[in-house]
Amino acid sequence: MRLILLGPPGAGKGTQAQRLVDKHGIPQLSTGDMLRAAVKAETEIGKKAKAVMDAGELVSDAIVNAIVSERIDQPDCARGFILDGYPRTLAQADSVEAMLQDKGLKLDMVIELVVDDKALVGRIVKRAEEAQAAGQPVRKDDNPVVFEERLREYYKKTAPLIGYYHAKGLLAGVDGMASIDDVTTQIEALLAKV
Ligand code: AMP
Q1: What spacing in Å lies between the alpha carbon of 31 and ligand 1's midpoint?
Q2: For ligand 1, which residues put their CB under 6 angstroms from it?
Q3: What pTM was computed for the model?
Q4: Atom 2 in ligand 1: which residue has the minimum CA distance?
Q5: What's the confidence (pLDDT) of residue 2?
Q6: Closest C-alpha among 112, 81, 114 to residue 99
Q7: Which of 84, 115, 135, 147 has the least CB density, counted as fewest CB within 10 Å?
Q8: How is the beta sheet containing 81-84 ordered, strand by strand?
Q9: DSSP string of 98-138?
Q10: DSSP letter assigned to residue 76
Q11: Quick one: which of 24, 17, 8 has its CA closest to 183?
Q12: Selection from 45, 139, 30 nearest residue 85 by Cα
């Protein structure tokens, strides 16, 4: 099963992806996590991406496309994967389609977590507070000022993917404002039809 989780920052993509990993045994491919790992390891990609990420802007398509292309060739992706935070631009969407086509594979579904913008800043602040309380590192971009920029980037560059996947007949929406368990139930009901 090859899925994309689509939605603005703070919509709950990561949380739901983790549940799908546990239930279906396929990996979560989060470009945000991969980029943060590259920043931490101070790789060439990490050095290029750091300032862009800290500002809440999008890293170049070329960088993320290359990371994903390499990742989906790994053996653990053979049975499928969940793309979380990728694609985020139309160019990335075209790229993932080409990557899969090359391998004779296709996407099964794109699930949009439909959320109310006004609730998102609160979620991000909560995520930062919880990380701090648990002694985990707090993401630099999880603050209200950078969050506004991340949301702008989402509407400008990522939201057009909703129409793109709708036109391909791949889009399904779930109410992302419901409880975490309820969102999971909605997603599982959609996947039962795949
Ligand atoms: P996330 O963890 O998905 O919220 O991503 C954190 C940051 O990583 C984003 O604000 C971007 O700077 C960068 N990033 C993650 N995924 C992508 C992507 N697909 N395209 C461009 N930039 C990305």
Answers
A1: 6
A2: 9, 31-32, 35, 52-53, 56-59, 64, 85-86, 88, 92, 141, 150
A3: 0.94
A4: 32
A5: 97
A6: 81
A7: 135
A8: 28-30, 81-84, 2-6, 109-114, 171-175
A9: HHHHHTT----EEEEEE--HHHHHHHHHHHHHHHHHTTPPP
A10: G
A11: 17
A12: 30
Q: Answer yes or no: is pLDDT of 138 > 90.
A: no
Helix ranges, the chain (H): 13-24, 31-40, 44-54, 61-71, 90-102, 117-133, 144-153, 160-167, 180-191
Token look-up 């993917």 returns: 161
What whole-number distance in Å separates Cα of residue 90 and Cα of residue 80?
22
Which phi and psi angles does 134 have, rounded to 5°?
Answer: -85, 5
Q: For 39-78, what is each residue's pLDDT tens digit?
A: 999 999 999 999 999 999 999 999 999 999 999 999 999 9
Return the residue matching tokens 């979380």. 84
Inter-CA distances, 115 with 58, 132, 137, 182, Å: 21, 25, 26, 14
Tracing tokens 């209200």 back to the chain, one arrives at 144
- pLDDT for position 139: 86
pLDDT at 137: 87
Q: Is the Cβ–Cβ distance between 61 and 92 less than 8 Å?
A: yes
Q: Is residue 113 within 8 Å of 85, Cβ to Cβ?
A: no
